[in-house]
Amino acid sequence: MLLPHQPLQEAAVPSPRISSARDQAGPWHSEAVCRRDEAGLFFAPSKEPTAARLSREEAAKRVCARCPVMVECREHALLQPEPYGVWGGLTAAERRVVLARRRRREAELARATRVAAAG
């Protein structure tokens, strides 16, 4: 769960992994804790007041924090990208920040690679 005073942390890019018991049991979302909670907690109703939205998002993040598939969910939302709702403990705005950081890091790595190849 992210508190207002905590900086966003980027989700690690998943590496290819060997098939696990989870993979054989079904898709990652079948184990998501949010499947047992009200969907309204994760998606904003229209014209939701700011205070209500912040409270709802924090409650959704608390659910995500105890989820065994939070990383898979977050990565799904970042790769799709999901434009709405709380996914993997991040709001849509927080996911946009993470994606911007990833793009910036990828551009820096590409630039460094070009410089190294030229030099």
Automatic annotation (TrEMBL):
Q: Give the signal peptide range.
A: none
- Keyword annotations from UniProtKB, A to Z: 4Fe-4S, Cytoplasm, Disulfide bond, DNA-binding, Iron, Iron-sulfur, Metal-binding, Transcription, Transcription regulation
Spell out the molecular function terms from Gene Ontology: 4 iron, 4 sulfur cluster binding; dinitrosyl-iron complex binding; DNA binding; metal ion binding; protein-disulfide reductase [NAD(P)H] activity
Q: Where is the 4Fe-4S Wbl-type domain?
A: 33-97
Its main localization is cytoplasm
The cross-references to PROSITE patterns, in alphabetical order and at most eight, read: 4FE4S_WBL (PS51674)
The yes or no answer to whether the keyword S-adenosyl-L-methionine is present is no
Q: Where in the cell is it found?
A: Cytoplasm
Which family does the record assign?
A: Belongs to the WhiB family.
Its annotated function is as follows: Acts as a transcriptional regulator. Probably redox-responsive. The apo- but not holo-form probably binds DNA.
In its UniProt entry, what is this protein called?
Answer: Transcriptional regulator WhiB
Gene transcribed to yield this protein:
whiB
